[in-house]
Amino acid sequence: VLGNFNVYFNRKAGEPPLEQGWIPLIGKTYGFIQDPLKFLRARQEKYGDIFTVYIAGRYITFVMDPFLYINVIRYRKQIDFQQFADDIASKTFGYPAINEDKFPSLNERIHKSYKYLQGETLENLTETLRNNLQWIFKRELPEVRDWRNEEMYHFCCRLMFEANFLTLYGKNCAIGGHKQMTEIRSMFEKFDKMFPYLVARIPIQLLGSTRSIREKLINYFLPKNMAVWKESSEIVQARKQLLEQYEVLMEKDKAAHHFAFLWASVGNTLPATFWALYYLVMHPEALAAVHDEIDHVLRSTGQEIDPDYIIHLTREKLDGLIYLGSAINESFRLCSASMNIRVAQEDFTLKFEETKAISLRKGDWVAFYPQSLHLDPEVYENPEVYKFDRFVEDGKEKTAFYKNGKKLRDYLMPFGSGVSKCPGRFFAVNEIKQFLILLIKYYDMEILPGERQVGLDSSRAGLGILLPNSPVHFRYKLRT
Fold this sequence. Notes:
Elements: H1 2-7, E1 18-19, H2 29-34, H3 36-47, E2 50-55, E3 58-63, H4 69-74, E4 79-80, H5 82-93, H6 106-112, H7 119-140, E5 148-151, H8 152-169, E6 171-172, H9 178-199, H10 210-220, H11 223-226, E7 229-230, H12 234-244, H13 251-266, H14 269-282, H15 284-300, H16 315-319, H17 322-335, E8 340-344, E9 348-353, E10 356-360, E11 365-368, H18 371-374, E12 392-393, E13 396-397, E14 402-403, E15 406-407, H19 425-442, E16 443-447, E17 456-457, E18 467-468, E19 473-478
Parallel strand pairs: 1-2, 3-11
Antiparallel strand pairs: 2-3, 4-8, 5-19, 6-7, 8-11, 9-10, 12-13, 14-15, 16-19, 17-18
Helix pairs in contact: 7-8, 7-19, 8-14, 9-10, 10-13, 14-15, 14-17, 14-19, 15-17
């Protein structure tokens, strides 16, 4: 480590400016985690749009100019996302790294299975989710004619986690029951709190009960336990069949892959749902506008209030809810703090323009930090302010945003970029939309008096949607 640390002091021709610090493995970690956006903007002002920082034992070259993102994405062979993702996921969820020698074509075949999150199978998933949400609403939210108080994040999690789980994995007919679902969600939430530490490569043995919690969650997905589940989704069935073909994988390894897929399906969707609901309830004019849009679409399809929460909207109709979609995108813009990372596979020169290029060393990380784009006042006027119709123009979805007078190709990036873009993004947005449609159509909602405004918890910066930094209580009742 010390040798590598000292080698980087001697910069090669064409390498970006380096800010390294003096402590091996730590470098500038502390300054970065305190406020990543502020830290990166300060370095951008000092060094320009491309610079390297030593953080947590890694040399990370940040590309801050959004017009340069496409140049990085194009170098798929030389700068790979999959190596980084596999390394993080295998250590976090407890399965062996997917290397080509031991598991030939497994990674490629897993990616092919994502076709079940698109097209006709996406339609099927959306319909199953709708049915599950309606069933859960009927069970969990009976006729609440008087105000009922609840903590909003917990409210979103308990409803959306179960709806997502039942949609993807089906019902466990051997044990089943709402009690077990509550236990699984409770364990998941405890594991999720430790997720940033696992990604930071802190040994799981140092994280209290996290290891035993992970083992319990993994055991739930053992093949013998999954065999009794009914009505699981096509993508889960495909992944199950695929993993069974690799006899070298132990039963717990296969289960750990399924657990990782569960986290991928809800880890960011749950906080994203919370923020979409929170901002709408915090802004009554936005809530009223979205309600009117939903009401108009339902009436145009001949649908009225149904006591069983029966609402049927095709994917086309969901996509046509322009103001609801804009409100969700605006909450993504304000609350996503992912870091798009790729790893240099060899020493090479990354060319941006005819006269602009940088030299990279094998093993270097190349990263975008889209929050800097999402909160750029050149791109978004008053970027700190929630504006539910920011992504609407002339009654249609707005897709034209500019910086320095040039139209941006990438202007909203909550799901990543290029081949690393989340394959479940369409399903995730459909989940959030359907959840909000039921709530907004059937319930009056308001934040309780005296509740302070919720901020962002930066402990998950770089990992996706940020969590709220404090609880917030709201109340709801059936519309009259």
